[in-house]
Amino acid sequence: MIADRLFSITALIAVCCLVEITLARDAIRLPKNLRPYNYTVRLRPDIYSSQTDFTFSGSVLIDFDVVQTTNKIVVNQRGLTPENFFLTLAPDSIPANVPRLQELIVKDTEEVFEILLNGDLVQNAKYRMLLIFKGDMPVMGGSGIYVDYYTENGERRHLVATQFQRDATRTAFPCFDEPEFKANFNIELERRESRTSLSNGDLVQTIDLEDGWKRDIFERTPYMSCYLVAFVISDFEHVEFNSDKGRRIRVWVQRSYIHKVNFTVSVAGKIQDWFEDWTDYEHQTSKTDHVGLPNKGGAMENWGLILYDENALLFDPENEPVSFKMRAASLIAHEVAHFWFGNLITCEWWSDTWLNEGFAAFFQWEPLGDVLNWNHGMMQHIRAVNSIKGMDELESALPVYRPDVQLPSQAPSAFSRFTYSKGGALLRMFQQWIGKPIFQRSIRRYLKKFAFKSVVTQDLWDCIQDELEESGVSNFNVTENFNPWVNQRGISRIQVERKSNNLDLTQNRYPDFSGDDNYLWPVPVTVVTEGEAPGNNNVQFTLRQRNDDFTPNNLGNWYGINSRGSGYYRTLYDKAGEDDLLRTLENDISKVDDNQRLIIMDDNLLRFDKSEIKEVEALRFTKFLRNEETAGPWNIFSQSFQEFYSNIVDISNDTALRDYTRYLVDNMYGKVNFEPVVGEAELTKLTREVVSGLACGFGNQQCIDRALELVNQYRGDKDNNPIPADQRLNAYCTSLSYGDNTRENFFFIEELLEETNSLPEGDALFRSLACVSSVSLVNEYLDRLLLNSTTYYDDAGRVARMFNLLDNERGRATLIPRLNDFWIGDYPQGQISLTLVKLCEQTFQESKANEIKRILSERPENFDYLWDILNDNQNWVAEEYGNIRQWLVDNTPTNYELKSVFTGQYHNNQFVRYGSILDFENY
Ligand SMILES: [Zn+2]
Questions:
Q1: Element containing residue 44 per DSSP (H, E)
Q2: What was the pLDDT predicted at 517?
Q3: 87, 264, 438, 680: most buried by Cβ count inside 10 Å?
Q4: Residues 6+ apart with CB under 8 A from 662
């Protein structure tokens, strides 16, 4: 499952103000004395008799084994009202006594029905119980059985949908709602003529009932956990096709979007076929439905019926950037991967969630190499690995395997980004460590052995161990080598010191949290050297102790650790090693694999983020960008330097940083230019997105001219947007920072924002507004945000716009003299403090800091907390800025110096696109 609540712009805006609501629940774990194996569920959800209150009625037959004699049945339920209960022997049981019902107790806090019998259920006998019940369906509940809606031609159209993971199947019918209790499910849904119903299996029969109701009977599901049951009752339309392997696949969305599912159709079948080939294990349902729901957020891998937020299935290549395409394809691959990893084999309990989600996170990139010819390894880095490494450096980091998760109420924390992204990153490392062929054969063995069962982590290790041994590898202990990676939180950093032809290695958790556990990892070390081809796959050495040394092959004059970037660790070189590596990169970038270049940049730029080195030292690691052509390093650069840029840009009109950045970027901009080229790689598009954002933002005249030309053309003919999909944010932003038409463009963009119903387009328009650079325009914008703001935007919109504007140096400069307006107009009072913190964090120019202090000290409120921030920034300027400036000037050729005063605005929104709506909040 992927929960993604940041799918809409409104949700994005509201995120700063959300308060997590925790329900008073204290659900218990079920006893293991009964095991269900077959369910027949019949439900009649009513979305027809009311527009506001929705109920359903239903019955469930559960056949179960008695593992241990008991006179009590405990089944999960949440919010259900029981109406009747019957018990009999199951058809395939041994002869046994059937006790009678003594009492059915509804325990709402524990989320169970406790069914007391007047005698024992006999061990080894099989029983069948029937429960009849009623329940309510919340509107847009997002969990359990719920009602969703969309509007068509002004009419609200209701539909029924489900989200049962982790433990909400119990809202729809009484069940054994834990992943290890697998069973077959026969689903029967009752509906009116006007709707279609879908469930995991294919429709086998429709029966006409009284009063215009119909009953759809679906084929039996595979043997599976009950959180994978799903259904939808809607009036959606669909596209149907067969994959190359002849698998039936359908894509369902609301009628007016059906023309936008072409991309999903083009990849969904290929991806599913890929998994059949890779795993050598047949797909298990006779059809796969991909359904886009209006207000879901995220996606859920129900077997045969994947439910998504509809935005995920609606990629429009003409008008949406490649980053959304990557997102759409990888999300589909993630969910389809679960058919094998999660559905066929399921974690026994949520402490092993990583066996579901880590695998899905790994396999959401893997097939895209073959299916779409994408550089999937680098995409995984850009989208998932880099950010999870950053999170793993926090004191709050969590391990991948979570033995502490025992109760249902603790389960949500097992669905953290560590389980997903780090789990996926570790699998990539393990794959490189034991080699791709053995990795694949191990996983095939694991699937064959544990299909339709539930597993714990050791089961996976055992399969890999067996495969290694069968392949003749006898000296590799899988449990010893792999367990520390999933059991220990945090990330390791290897400090390298070269001693003649030896490398001396020391490992420590990074950063060093004093008093923290004394972690050690078995670190697989890969090395590229002067004498080795780049991208050497082999692990040359495993560092097991705190400190050890080894002699790499052909060390020569330089070397680089983590040669394919798959190792989940950081590297810190000694000074000479660092110099040798940087010199190599500047002379011939191709000596080092592109994924390793990304790692080198990431490992080192973060040292400046963590104040471990000075900015001026970190800048050394940016010089090779002049020759860099791949998306990864550019991406890291733009993300890591976001803060740095905004600090420096605030200080003065000094163009040193702008000149240097333009020097770095001009080369690559000259290669990618503004317009996409037919047939080019997706990552080239992504590189262009980053590079041209920097080029236009830092004064590349060709880039600026082209952006202005296209926006002006668009303004003249609003029905035809000539701006390439990947350049929208950049072009809109540029059109508000440069040129003669910034005023017209500003109001044009506001108008477009009002009219668009495309999420990516809306996102680009919204964020570009903060690029506004003319002082009079910023003042008008501030009037709207601070004074007569309710005319224009709601509270959340106002705060989000203000936060965006504060990333803009001109926005800050114009706001400061108007600080008192925060208390004059209707800016949300609860947000003033946070807004001022953000302003001060980004204020570095002394005169601005002084003006803030002067204005705020005349107010009655206490602002001591701001003075520290402002003073820290001033100290930083005094100590660092001179050196940084000198370095920038020294490293920029003189012909890159801007002769005139720089007038454009660079807005660092360019940087954050991978961290905004493209990210999963609860990955
Ligand atoms: Zn998932």
A1: strand 34-46
A2: 65
A3: 264
A4: 695, 698, 699, 700, 896
H or E element that contains 742? helix 742-755
Query: Using the 8-state DSSP alphabet, how is residue 169 labeled?
Result: G
Residues 6+ apart with CB under 8 A from 509: 490, 491, 492, 493, 516, 517, 519
878-884 average pLDDT score: 88
How many A from CA of 346 to the centre of ligand 1?
A: 12
Which pLDDT does position 26 carry in this prediction? Answer: 80
Sign of torsion over alpha carbons 222, 456, 510, 589: negative
Element (H, E) at 729: helix 728-737
The answer, yes or no, to whether the previous bond of 36 is cis (omega within 30 of 0) is: no
How many angstroms separate the CA atoms of 3 and 11, rounded?
13
Distance from the alpha carbon of residue 267 to the mean position of ligand 1, in angstroms: 18
Q: What is the mean pLDDT of residues 654-671?
A: 88
679-704 per-residue burial string, b: 16 or more CB within 10 A, e: under 16: eebbbbbbbbbbbbbbbbbbbbeebb
Tokens encoding 487? 């059991």
- Cα–Cα distances in angstroms (integers) from residue 296 to residues 162, 312, 664, in the given order: 10, 10, 42
Tokens of 412: 């949500």
CA of 356 to the centre of ligand 1 (A): 7
Sequence-distant (≥ 6) Cβ neighbours of residue 762 within 8 angstroms: 9, 753, 756
Question: Is it the case that residue 901 has pLDDT exceeding 80?
Answer: no
Give residue-wise pLDDT tens across range 71-126.
999 999 999 999 999 999 999 999 999 999 999 999 999 999 999 999 999 999 99
CA 301 – ligand 1 centroid, Å: 7
335 is known as an active-site residue: yes
The residues near 231 (Cβ < 8 Å, ≥ 6 apart) are 43, 160, 161, 162, 187, 189, 197, 198, 199, 200, 305
Can you name the residues that pair with 121 across neighbouring β-strands? 70
CB 71 within 8 A of CB 119: yes
Among 335, 532, 689, 761, the one annotated catalytic: 335
Please tell me whether 338 is known to bind a ligand: yes
What pLDDT shows up at residue 657? 83
- For residue 213, the cross-strand partners are 192
Alpha-carbon distances of 647 from 390, 612, 644, 652, rounded to whole Å: 21, 18, 5, 10
Question: Is the separation of the CB atoms in 620 and 582 below 8 Å?
Answer: yes
571 touches 508 (CB < 8 A) = no
- Distance (angstroms) between ligand 1 centre and the Cα of 329 equals 14
Contacts of 780 (CB under 8 A, 6+ apart): none
Calpha distance 449→345 (Å, rounded)? 9
Counting every residue written for the chain, the total comes to: 923
Region 881-898: what's the mean pLDDT? 87
Average pLDDT, the chain: 89
> Ligand 1 center to residue 297 CA distance, Å?
13
Distance CA 192, CA 708 (A): 54
Q: Write down the pLDDT at residue 25.
A: 63
Q: Please give the distance, rounded to the nearest whole angstrom, from the Cα atom of residue 135 to the centre of ligand 1.
A: 28
d(CA 381, CA 910): 19
Q: Tell me, letter by letter, the H, E, C secondary structure of 268-318.
A: HHHHHHHHHHHHCCCCCCCEEEEEEECCCCCEECCCCEEEEEHHHHCCCCC
Ligand 1 center to 300 CA (angstroms): 7
Q: Quick check: 617 pLDDT over 90? A: no
| β-pair partners for 89 | 127
Q: What pLDDT sits at residue 645?
A: 72
Q: Is 599 left (phi over 0), alpha (psi -120 to 50) or beta?
A: alpha
C-alpha distance from residue 84 to each of 98, 104, 119, 129, 827 (Å): 17, 9, 19, 10, 56
Residue 246 pLDDT > 50, yes or no?
A: yes
